[in-house]
Amino acid sequence: MKEINIKSKENIHIVFWLIKDLCWSIEFKPLALIMILPTVSLACYIAYKTKEYTSDFIHNIAVCFWICANATWMVGEFFNYELRFYSATLFGIGISIILIYYLFTYLKKSK
User: Fold this and answer.
1) Which of 11, 51, 56, 59 has CA atoms 20 to 30 A from the CA of 100?
2) Handedness of CA 22, 27, 28, 30 (dihedral sign)
3) Spans of all domains in the chain
4) pTM, whole model, 2 decimals?
5) Longest Cα separation, the chain
6) What pLDDT, on a 0 to 100 scale, did the predictor assign at position 100?
7) What sign does the CA torsion over 5, 7, 11, 16 have?
8) Helical H runs in the chain?
């Protein structure tokens, strides 16, 4: 039952994310900016709820960084701020978390 509950949260999270990105692409700033909060919040909630499943948790934390990076990039574009460095840093942290996880998983299996 818990898995179904998380899956429904993941599905609505995708809807929030798509609304945010659609509004970004059509430059509808008010809704795009509003959608940052529920999108990031739900991503963090999903990560927290999957903390007992290491693989899911790691991937969900990376998604949190990805969405934060995506939102940072969007805000930079909307307000003509140069935020790409910060966005790239957040993307880098997310991918680093995944790579470190897989590196340790590979090393653990190769012993």
Assistant:
1) 11
2) positive
3) 2-110
4) 0.90
5) 53
6) 96
7) positive
8) 2-25, 29-34, 36-49, 54-79, 84-110
Q: How many CB atoms lie within 10 A of CB 86?
A: 16
Joined together, the tokens standing for residue 85 give 């460095």
Alpha carbon distance 79, 90 (integer Å): 19
- Is residue 48 within 8 Å of 29, Cβ to Cβ? no
* Structure tokens, 74: 């969007």
Give the pLDDT confidence of 46-75 residue by residue, as tens digits.
999 999 999 999 999 999 999 999 999 999
**Cα–Cα dist 107/72, whole Å:** 34
DSSP for residue 53: S
Contact between 43 and 64 (Cβ < 8 Å): yes
Q: DSSP for 67-90?
A: HHHHHHHHHHHHHT---HHHHHHH
Asked whether the beta carbons of 43 and 63 are under 8 A apart, the reply is yes
* Ranges of residues in the chain whose predicted pLDDT is under 70: 1-4
